[in-house]
Structure formats: C-alpha cells, structure tokens
Design brief:
166 residues; alpha/beta; Rossmann fold; 5 strands
C-alpha cells in the first residue's frame, strides 16, 4: 500500500484576504496540522511589536525555530498548513528551504482579493475581536507595500483563489 506524501500548504495574500479562513478549511484534512504565525507572534511577542521593523525582527526569530519543526512534521508524514505570510520573495525562499529538507509535496495558495474587499473584511474582523492580529487600515497599506506576487520562476505549485473562492 502506497502512502501519499505529506503536503506543505503555504499562504500568499494581503491582510484580510482570507488566508486564515482557507487555512482552517485545509487544516481539517486528516493527518494535517496548522501553524499560524499571527497566533505565535501574539503569544510570544505582542508587547514587542509596534512597527513593521518589530514585526520583521520577531517573525525572523519565530521562523528560526518553526522552520526545522515544520520539516520534522513533514518528514514524519504529517501535512502542514503554514499560515505564515508568503508575500515576499524572502519569505518564500524560507519556505523553499523547509521543503528542500523533505520529500513533501507543496501548494502555494495565492489569494487574489482587491484592497477594497480586504479593507472591508479587516474592519469586520477587527470589530469582531476574533483574530490575534488587528492592524489598522493604515497598517494594511504599509504592509501591502511589501507584497510581491509569486512568479513561476520561483518553482512553486501555485493555486489561485479569487475573492469569490477565498
């Protein structure tokens, strides 16, 4: 009997594009765990993050320990939904480094949602208080400046999701 190799699911999309919603859906599959960057950063570094530079520093610290852990899970046959932003070439390079330590398959989920829809969702999300990360619309604009859509040259299997499917 042949087993299907584990899969690393990665998320690329602006704030409030639906990454966490898709993550929860994918995380319901058997033998799959979810690792959410916002939850970890909030639990470990909430008081230390007040700027993009702070976020970058804390995220780098977190990734240094999470990367080997994700590789271990994949090598043990467990699929991982990595709800860490894959919005920059640098972050996707980190994720590629994890994959290179495994025989896992992968999918880079790219959520293509307009800024207007993201901002509308962000206001609703912030009002509900259900999400660990509650950026302002101004912070949305700041973070969005760093978004770089993936290209086929990066070597990922890209799965596109629009606002209608996110």
């Amino acid at each position: 009997m042949s087993q299907t190799p584990p899969t690393l699911h990665m998320m690329c999309g602006k704030i409030a594009s639906g990454k966490s919603t898709l993550t929860a859906e994918l995380g319901r599959a058997d033998a799959t765990v979810v690792m959410a960057e916002d939850d970890w950063l909030n639990a470990l570094y909430a008081e230390e993050m007040s700027s993009i530079a702070d976020f970058s520093l804390c995220s780098t610290k977190l990734r240094s320990i999470i990367g080997p852990h994700v590789a271990s899970l994949l090598n043990a046959g467990v699929s991982v939904v990595l709800d860490f932003q894959a919005n920059t070439v640098e972050s996707r390079r980190w994720m590629r480094g994890i994959l290179d330590q495994t025989n896992a398959t992968h999918k880079l989920h790219v959520l293509q949602v307009s800024d207007a829809i993201c901002l509308q969702r962000l206001r609703l999300r912030n009002a509900s208080g259900d999400h660990a990360f509650a950026p302002t619309p101004e912070q949305f604009v700041q973070f969005s400046k760093y978004y770089v859509a993936p290209t086929k040259d990066e070597g990922f299997e890209i799965v596109l999701h629009s606002a209608d499917t996110a």
